Structures are given as structure tokens and as C-alpha cells.
């Protein structure tokens, strides 16, 4: 599916497929350098990070394992509350492991700050964050993010893993929705 197929639902393409590919290659080169000689455990947060993970891991050269968590944040509609429930936990014992969280987007930061604390309490050797997108204007708590793809305005975005009511995750780019889609 491309922007034309989305017709009137899509307002604009914010980040193209080419820009995403180039950025992930750039971040992978930094991670290769920073984790040289170490085994890294990539932790994807379902479902949004699935596309970032699959492209990022293929751009990496250091040995990497993958594991997944599904977490749900209690909150209304599109806002997270920071009160988090684990829906699917890791299969891996992360004691002594170098964990790199792979995320699609950081909005308020509440979900991630909970996750970092949770993983650190399990005895990980290190916990760092890679996120494709970040909305600086929406930040409610400070989160140390080592690898950021793009800072974006405080607008609701879809595509490349991100959904609106489970739709649009398969788009190869990140776009904004026309207001009529989420207001109706
Ligand atoms: P917080 O606020 O805890 O939330 O940083 C991060 C989670 O909220 C979702 N989220 C979005 N999903 N378009 C989406 O499709 C967006 O613009 C958006 N902003 C936040 C997402 O699940 C993310 O992991
Ligand atoms: Mg997410």
C-alpha cells in the first residue's frame, strides 16, 4: 500500500520508506560500534515495534538475539497513563545481559520509563533504548534515549508498525491521518 492507496484517510507522508531505511542503517552502524564484542539482546515491544525490529536487525552486524514483550498501558483512547500491565513477558533471563529496547515511538515516555525500571530490577547489565520516533513536545517524564530516529511534532501518526484502531500498521512509511478519520 502506498500513500495514493490510502486516499482521503491520509493527510501527509511524514517520513518516507527511504528515509526510514537510511536512518535505521545509520543507527545500526552506531549500535555496531557501541556493542562491538558484546552480545546484545534486542527487546521489541509488541505490536508497534515489529517493523522497526525486522528492518533494524537486518541492518546490524553485531550478534543479536531478539525477544518480545507485550505490555498494555491503562489509559483512555490514545493516551497512556504509565500504569502498565505485562501481557506477554520475555522468554529470556536477562540477568547480566545487554538489553537494547527497540521501540516505534515515545510519546509521554511513561511506558518506557516503567519498562526501563522493570528491566533494570531484573539485573540486566545494561538497558538502552532505540526508538524510531519521538515526540519531544509530548514528554511527561525524562527518559534517556540513546538512539533516536526522528523527532516529530505532537501529532497522531500511523504506519510502519503504528496503528489507529489496529489499521495502517503495514504501511511502509509514517504518515499523519486526516482529522475526519479519528474524529468520526
Ligand atoms: P507513552 O506515552 O507511554 O506511549 O510514551 C507510547 C505508546 O503510545 C502509543 N502511541 C502512538 N501510537 N500513533 C500511534 O499509532 C501515535 O502517534 C502514537 N503516540 C503514542 C504507542 O503504542 C507507543 O508505544
Ligand atoms: Mg508501542
From TrEMBL:
Keyword Membrane assigned: no
Location in or out of the cell: Cytoplasm
Recorded metabolic or biological pathway in which this protein acts: Purine metabolism; IMP biosynthesis via salvage pathway; IMP from hypoxanthine: step 1/1; Purine metabolism; GMP biosynthesis via salvage pathway; GMP from guanine: step 1/1
Class of enzymatic activity (EC top level): transferase
One MF annotation (Gene Ontology) recorded for this entry: hypoxanthine phosphoribosyltransferase activity
Superkingdom classification of source: Bacteria
GO biological process assignments: GMP salvage; guanine salvage; hypoxanthine metabolic process; IMP salvage; purine ribonucleoside salvage
Catalytic reaction(s) noted: GMP + diphosphate = guanine + 5-phospho-alpha-D-ribose 1-diphosphate; IMP + diphosphate = hypoxanthine + 5-phospho-alpha-D-ribose 1-diphosphate
Entry EC no(s): 2.4.2.8
Cofactor: Mg(2+)
GO cellular component, one term: cytosol
Coiled-coil regions listed in the entry: none
InterPro entries for this protein: HGPRT, Hxn_phspho_trans, PRTase-like, PRTase_dom
Keywords for this protein: Cytoplasm, Glycosyltransferase, Magnesium, Metal-binding, Nucleotide-binding, Purine salvage, Transferase
NCBIfam families named among the record's database cross-references: HGPRTase
PANTHER family: HYPOXANTHINE PHOSPHORIBOSYLTRANSFERASE, HYPOXANTHINE-GUANINE PHOSPHORIBOSYLTRANSFERASE
Entry similarity comment: Belongs to the purine/pyrimidine phosphoribosyltransferase family.
Name of the featured protein: Hypoxanthine phosphoribosyltransferase
Amino acid at each position: 500500500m502506498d500513500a495514493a492507496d490510502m486516499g482521503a484517510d491520509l493527510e501527509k507522508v511524514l517520513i518516507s520508506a527511504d528515509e526510514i531505511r537510511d536512518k535505521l542503517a545509520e543507527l545500526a552502524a552506531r549500535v555496531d560500534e557501541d556493542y562491538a564484542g558484546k552480545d546484545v539482546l534486542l527487546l521489541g515491544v509488541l505490536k508497534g515495534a515489529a517493523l522497526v525490529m525486522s528492518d533494524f536487525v537486518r541492518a546490524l552486524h553485531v550478534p543479536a538475539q531478539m525477544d518480545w514483550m507485550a505490555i498494555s498501558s491503562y489509559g483512555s483512547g490514545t493516551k497512556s497513563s504509565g500504569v502498565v500491565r505485562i501481557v506477554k513477558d520475555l522468554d529470556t533471563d536477562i540477568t547480566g545481559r545487554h538489553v537494547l529496547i527497540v521501540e516505534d515511538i515515545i510519546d509521554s515516555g511513561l511506558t518506557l520509563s516503567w519498562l526501563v525500571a522493570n528491566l533494570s530490577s531484573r539485573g540486566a547489565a545494561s538497558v538502552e533504548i532505540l526508538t524510531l520516533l519521538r515526540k519531544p513536545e509530548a514528554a511527561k517524564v525524562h527518559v534517556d534515549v540513546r538512539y533516536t530516529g526522528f523527532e516529530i511534532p505532537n501529532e497522531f501518526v500511523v504506519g510502519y508498525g503504528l496503528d489507529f484502531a489496529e489499521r495502517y500498521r503495514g504501511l511502509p512509511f509514517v504518515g499523519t491521518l486526516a482529522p475526519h478519520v479519528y474524529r468520526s
